[in-house]
Design brief:
The protein has about 375 residues and is an alpha/beta fold. The chain contains 13 helices and twelve strands.
């Protein structure tokens, strides 16, 4: 137990720190962060929300920083407050890829290519795919023909993976009954409540543990890695997803794995104009205190420095690159991909600006026209 003298000295130190840095409160004089940080997450019951809460506890204990999660039920709901400046950062998913590219739901009026930057990737042992209840009788993708298939409104990620999953099984939306939900957790509840027969899921989502312990049970639908043709079809709709063997989640372990897919999730991201010093210090805090939070929530281990990805579809923030170089993790060969992505961003932004000068007013025509203009601009720049 700390003595009264130690407590007084500690209190004086904190007080002096607050006077010297009125906007900063930190227990580590090498990590300087605002006393409140907000970031958008998936809703309560999602793995992303649980990741945030666990990291927030460590930040509070170690740095005196309040990390406030702002739940959003879909990609747009999480990105909109980041774009407006109402939140500082966001735990994004595959939607970050579509937002950067300005395609899918981000190819609509008012959106377009978004200048996003990555701070930290999460590459966990969990996986992503399609699930059903254990007693549904559905065991393979082929079994979902004519069934009720759930998707999420305004979620480019989920829509693309479910559409790709159908293609994997040689189907389209015309072969199933489409059921739309307002958010990810709502779709999981829809499966539990009998509104859908299959839905998209991350294997470590809290709701899946509920399903497994229920009388119905839980079943993962595999995307067999040996099915090269199926994977080729899937990636036409979900180019951000790759084959993955999941070993984390209810019913899963190193001895009981499932062949599914994955992409980095969650991704701690910002817009490009996020303050370099804040980004540098937040990135540093994520790694310095990794051992403190890695076992506090399913999937947290995926934030490890050695699991970072340097060839995905969204560029890193300069503040993050600065820390990665200090940590010896950033290699010279990574510069080429970073430069490519920044050039791609410039091409997409220019194409969006040009297109909007004479874009059609009809929403459908607008999006279709933009997709064509986007492809032409990338092709002209020697990009696909």
């Amino acid at each position: 137990m700390k003595s009264t003298f130690q407590s007084v000295i500690q209190s004086l130190f904190v007080a002096m720190t607050m006077l010297a840095f009125s906007h900063q409160v930190t227990a580590d004089d090498k990590i300087k962060l605002p006393n409140v940080i907000t970031w958008s997450t998936y809703t309560i019951g999602s793995s992303g929300y649980n990741n945030t809460v666990s990291i927030g506890k460590v930040f509070k204990d170690k740095l005196g920083v309040n990390l406030r999660p702002i739940p959003g039920k879909n990609d747009v709901a999480r990105l909109a407050p980041m774009r407006s400046g109402k939140v500082d950062f966001g735990l994004a998913g595959g939607g970050a890829f579509f937002a950067f590219e300005g395609t899918s739901i981000f190819g609509k009026k008012g959106w377009g290519p978004q200048a996003l930057r990555v701070l930290v990737y999460n590459r966990p042992d969990s996986g992503m795919g399609i699930i059903t209840l254990g007693d549904s009788g559905i065991k393979t993708i082929a079994d979902i023909r004519d069934k009720r298939v759930g998707t999420v409104l305004s979620s480019a990620t989920i829509e693309s993976i479910v559409t790709g999953g159908l293609a994997f099984g040689g189907m389209t939306w015309d072969d199933v009954k489409r059921v739309e939900f307002p958010g990810y957790v709502a779709s999981l509840n829809g499966l539990i409540n009998g509104q859908a027969d299959v839905v998209f899921a991350l294997t470590t989502s809290a709701k899946l543990y509920e399903m497994e312990s229920s009388s119905h049970g839980l079943r993962y639908i595999p995307f067999e890695h040996s099915n090269k043709e199926g994977w080729s079809k899937m990636r036409q709709y979900a180019p951000h997803i790759v084959p993955h063997i999941a070993s984390e989640g209810p019913g899963l372990s190193k001895d009981n794995k499932i062949e599914v897919g994955t992409y980095p999730y969650p991704i701690l991201a910002s817009y490009k104009d996020a303050d370099d010093e804040t980004v540098y210090n937040l990135t540093k805090a994520m790694y310095v205190y990794f051992d403190e939070y890695k076992d506090m929530a399913p999937g947290n281990a995926g934030f490890a420095l050695e699991r970072q990805i340097y060839n995905w579809g969204v560029p890193f923030h300069p503040g993050t690159i600065r820390y990665l170089k200090e940590a010896g993790a950033w290699k010279p060969e990574y510069d080429a991909h970073q430069t490519y992505l920044l050039k791609r961003e410039k091409v997409l932004a220019g194409a969006w600006a040009s297109y909007n000068k004479s874009a059609p007013s009809d929403d459908k025509a607008f999006q279709e026209g933009w997709e064509q203009a986007r492809k032409e601009a990338l092709a002209a720049a020697g990009m696909s």
